[in-house]
Design goal:
The complex is a heterodimer of chains A (about 230) and B (about 400).
Chain A: E1 3-16, E2 19-32, E3 36-41, H1 47-54, E4 62-67, E5 70-71, H2 77-87, E6 88-91, H3 103-112, H4 121-131, H5 147-159, E7 165-169, H6 177-192, E8 196-200, H7 204-207, E9 212-217, E10 220-226
Parallel strand pairs in A: 3-8, 3-9, 6-7, 7-8
Antiparallel strand pairs in A: 1-2, 1-4, 4-5, 9-10
Chain B: H1 3-16, H2 18-55, E1 60-65, H3 85-92, E2 97-112, E3 115-124, H4 127-131, E4 136-139, H5 144-148, E5 153-156, H6 158-164, E6 174-177, E7 180-188, E8 193-194, E9 197-198, E10 203-206, H7 207-215, E11 222-227, H8 233-247, E12 256-260, H9 261-304, H10 306-314, H11 319-356, H12 364-390, H13 394-399
Parallel strand pairs in B: 3-10, 5-7
Antiparallel strand pairs in B: 1-11, 1-12, 2-3, 2-6, 2-11, 4-7, 5-10, 6-7, 8-9
Chain lengths: ~230, ~400
Amino acid sequence: MKTLIKLTSIVKTYRMGDVIVNALRGVDVVINEGEFVAVMGASGSGKSTMMNVIGCLDLPDSGSFMLDGKEVFGMNRRNLADLRNTKIGFVFQNFSLLARTTALENVELPMHYRHGKKMDYRAAARAALEKVGLGERLDHMPNQLSGGQQQRVAIARAIVNDPPLILADEPTGALDTQTSAEVMQLFIDLNNNGKTIVLVTHEPEIAAYAKRLIRMRDGLIISDEPVVK
Amino acid sequence: MRTSGLIKTACKSILRNRVRSFLTMLGIIIGVASVIVMVAIGEGAQLQIRQQIEAMGTNVLTVRAGSMSARGGVRTNVARRILTLQDIERLRVLPGIVAISPVSRASGRIVGGIGNWQTTAMGVTDDFLVIRDWELDDGVMFTDQDIRSAGKVAVIGKTVADELFPNIDPIGASVRIGTMPVRIIGLLRERGQNMGDDQDDIVLLPVTTVMQRMSGTRFIDQIMISTETMDIIPDVQGAVLATLVASHRGTNEDSFNVRSQSEIMERATETSRTMTALLAAIAGVSLVVGGIGIMNIMLVSVTERTREIGIRMAVGARERDILMQFLIESIVLSVMGGVIGVALSVVLIYVMNDVAGIAAVFEPATVLMSLAFSGFVGVFFGFYPARKAARLNPIQALRFE
């Protein structure tokens, strides 16, 4: 199995005013292609910071982060942006769709920032939306869609550039149980189709959808084991 | 992102806040319109000054012998001893000259009618009236025949006529100038004062009459020339000077003084040009203020759309993409303002010309300049907010509420 993510001795320290927060204190993780990993932990455990590092939104202070065979530590902002564009699809708790922009246009967005690849944006976005079951609502604005539908648009946006990795940060945090289950089923489908999924959550029921569970506390990984179904 | 996509995005976000966008643009609209209108008023004033001076005979050259002294007076000790009637014939053939007349002055007392009057007799040819754009109220001007024969005929101004012939028709009357009997054949139209001089206090005689019968000289005081247009005055000036230097041995360019009315006009237009520049500069300040308005609203927009910026960064927008997005938005804002400002200025200029009666000349060059400048304002004042947006930390931008 090919290694997709390899974190080695990742340290990240924040300064919040006068307080120094040791968000990550030497984290080592290896995630292979095709895995479905849930990351759990209380707030302040460092799970969000780890997501930010894996998502190439933030650089660690020290350590090594190999993504798809490339060292990310020390990259400039432009290369990080290109990695986010091509290697990672983000799904956030609050959907993070552009307001007053149609579902189709929201899904097209990552392709606009894809450099050096010409394609039919509209057709690709339509295909992605059909894949998440929203083929009928292409021209709806986010505020005309339910929470579950918005999250589906976000998932379509995450997969439209066909990245190997999907990062989901509390993707069901704003959804009811029924919708949550539907959205999680989408992640399972994506995982079955070969996508690597890393999911941050504080709900055990959601974490149970994953195949592997990483627990964090105080900036360290305290357990890392397969999920027993 | 491609430029077309960026412009589309920019227009969308501008249309999203219509009122705000319009108010922001208003600064540029007013700035651009006022620059164009101010320049138009300035151009209009210049045109009016030109027309007024031209009506006074702008395309007139005065040739004298002798150079200007340091104190500004003409050194006339040599003046009377260079220019002759032959020079008139030499200059007459130069291109661009419409009319040419010698001027030979002699002072004398004119006696006749009810009394006498001290005046200046000017010896000229019939071209003089063409040059000064002067018409006769009554009678006729003397002819070439009168000039060849040094005829004893005179054309008088209104002031002289009023002094000697109040309520009497002077035409045909006989007067004496000095000791010479002269018959009055024409009456000049009243001209009024010009810079404190009574232009109507004048007696015109054939130049030969003055030279031969009054001053007894073969030299003339000055030559007056009118040219076809104002634009060729410098050329004619040069040609006249060259001809005179070539035909008088021992003279150089400093021996003659060829002056044009356009020098006066230049000073007048210079003043009005300075005024125009000043007005345009003041109007330009409002354009800059408009630009600050754009910067202000763009900064607000960047803050408001921090989350949007975060989302765009998360899906892979480079710094440059975000920078261009906001920069193009501010350029579109200011150029739209510029276009509306141009339209507004066209209306204002039309209203001023046709309704208010203020001369304003629409200058297409200022339109291009204002549009270019408003584009520049968009870049200049949009850059800082755009850079601020582009430099945002993606995590903080995503978390921003």
